[in-house]
């Protein structure tokens, strides 16, 4: 007789970090473009500079996003790029959401 | 500490739609100078190398200077239009576009240098430059 392991619900595979709506939106904005300027992300996500800065730091600490600093003349420029690890996490998160969206019953 | 509840099927669908909308919106808002640049660069260098390959003397000089001038203007336009933008600048995709264009342009220049006056070869080489640029622009537009 073999013991059957109950199948884990897809919600358990959701990335906790990406369940925050702002972090989710930042990752979504970077998905196609790969790299965007700080202002471009801010405009796309429609949040304040400080909120973006805070959430981008959290994503950077997790290794999902890399923050680049450069100068255009004397003007500092910050860019956000999706890392390989971040892209993998994002794809997995979306795949899980699709699984949940496609499931027949509500949670 | 953050606590988040798992989304329902309807919420998951809404999140997926939001992700798609944001991703497309951010990309569309930033990519047009890149598409315009690669297209214009392809057309200018294709026509320029063809003109250089089939002309001599003053005509060659005019084609040479004209191509350089147009390329210079395009670069200025590009630098101005992407000021403050970072999209694609360091992406592998953009590097691949420029590398593809450069390889085809180098081949067209080789025709200008070593097979000068050969209209068929010039047409093929210049055509390849144009096709590469069109494919890159179409690829970027569809991505």
Detailed description of the structure:
- Chain B: Keywords: Membrane, Transmembrane, Transmembrane helix.
- Chain B: This is Chemotaxis protein CheY.
- Chain B: The chain crosses the membrane at residues 34-55, 61-82, 94-114, 120-139.
- Chain B: It comes from Herbiconiux oxytropis.
- Chain A: This is Transcriptional regulator.
- The complex is a heterodimer of chains A (107) and B (143).
- Chain A is an alpha+beta fold and 107 residues long.
- Chain A is built from four helices and three strands.
- A three-stranded antiparallel beta sheet of chain A has the order 1-3-2.
- In chain A, strand 2 (65-72) and strand 3 (75-82) form a beta hairpin.
- The longest helix of chain A is centred in the last third of the chain and has 19 residues, at 84-102.
- The two termini of chain A are 31 Å apart.
- The mean pLDDT of chain A is 85.
- The model of chain B has no long low-confidence stretch (mean pLDDT 87).
- Chain B has helices at residues 9-54, 57-81, 92-114, 119-142.
- Chain B has one domain (31-142).
- Chain B has 143 residues and is mainly α.
- Helix content of chain B is 83%, strand content 0%.
- Chain A binds chain B through residues 9, 11, 14, 16, 19-20, 24-25, 27-37, 39-41, 43-45, 68, 72, 77, 79-81, 94, 97-98, 100-103, 105-107, and chain B through 2, 4, 6-10, 12-13, 15-16, 18-20, 22-27, 29-31, 83-91, 93, 143.
């Amino acid at each position: 007789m073999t013991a059957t392991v109950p199948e884990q619900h897809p919600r358990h595979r959701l990335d906790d970090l990406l369940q925050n709506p702002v972090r989710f939106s930042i990752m979504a904005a970077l998905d196609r473009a790969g790299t965007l300027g700080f202002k471009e992300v801010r405009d796309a996500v429609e949040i304040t500079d400080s909120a973006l800065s805070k959430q981008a730091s959290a994503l950077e600490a997790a290794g999902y996003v890399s923050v680049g600093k450069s100068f255009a003349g004397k003007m500092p420029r910050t860019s956000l790029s999706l890392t390989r690890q971040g892209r993998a996490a994002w794809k997995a998160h979306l795949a899980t959401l699709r699984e949940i969206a496609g499931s027949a019953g509500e949670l | 500490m953050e606590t988040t509840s798992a989304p329902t099927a309807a919420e998951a669908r809404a999140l997926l739609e939001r992700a798609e909308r944001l991703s497309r919106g951010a990309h569309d808002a930033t990519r047009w100078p890149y598409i315009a640049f690669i297209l214009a660069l392809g057309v200018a260098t294709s026509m320029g190398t063809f003109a250089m390959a089939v002309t001599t003397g003053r005509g060659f000089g005019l084609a040479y200077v004209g191509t350089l001038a147009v390329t210079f203007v395009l670069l200025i336009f590009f630098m101005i239009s992407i000021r403050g933008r970072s999209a694609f600048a360091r992406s592998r995709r953009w590097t691949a576009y420029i590398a593809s264009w450069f390889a085809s342009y180098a081949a067209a220049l080789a025709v200008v240098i070593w097979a000068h006056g050969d209209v068929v070869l010039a047409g093929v080489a210049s055509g390849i430059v144009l096709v590469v640029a069109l494919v890159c622009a179409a690829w970027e537009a569809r991505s």
